[in-house]
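Figure 3 (text version): structure tokens given as input.
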């Protein structure tokens, strides 16, 4: 699974902070990683540096193998909170999608009988 971290010009991350974010992504998505080819994280400051509350936005886009990309967003007061919130949403989304696929695979092994 390839992990890409992107920021807008209002967010500056050190190399260590970028590595830590990448490690967080890998850790939180580890159990679904075999199904993913790439995860992109976009962090932006929607208020252009002014402190107005939940102005840090994180968009996480995942590319499940053989499926359409999935994306989620989270707004929070800090980069860490926004990233963690978006990753929690992504985990839920991927678990739901992968769970449905696993059920279909199990159904197809029952002689073509699809559960309703």
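Below: residues designed for each position.
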């Amino acid at each position: 699974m390839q992990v890409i971290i992107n920021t807008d010009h209002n967010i500056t991350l050190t190399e260590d902070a970028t590595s830590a974010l990448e490690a967080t992504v890998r850790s939180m998505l580890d159990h679904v990683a075999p199904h993913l080819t790439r995860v992109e994280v976009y962090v932006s400051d929607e208020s252009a540096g002014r402190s107005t509350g939940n102005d840090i936005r994180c968009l996480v886009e995942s590319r499940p193998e053989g499926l359409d990309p999935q994306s989620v967003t989270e707004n929070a007061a800090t980069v860490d909170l926004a990233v963690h919130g978006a990753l929690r949403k992504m985990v839920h989304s991927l678990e739901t999608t992968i769970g449905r696929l696993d059920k279909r695979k199990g159904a197809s092994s029952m002689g073509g009988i699809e559960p309703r």
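Helices lie at 15-28, 79-108.
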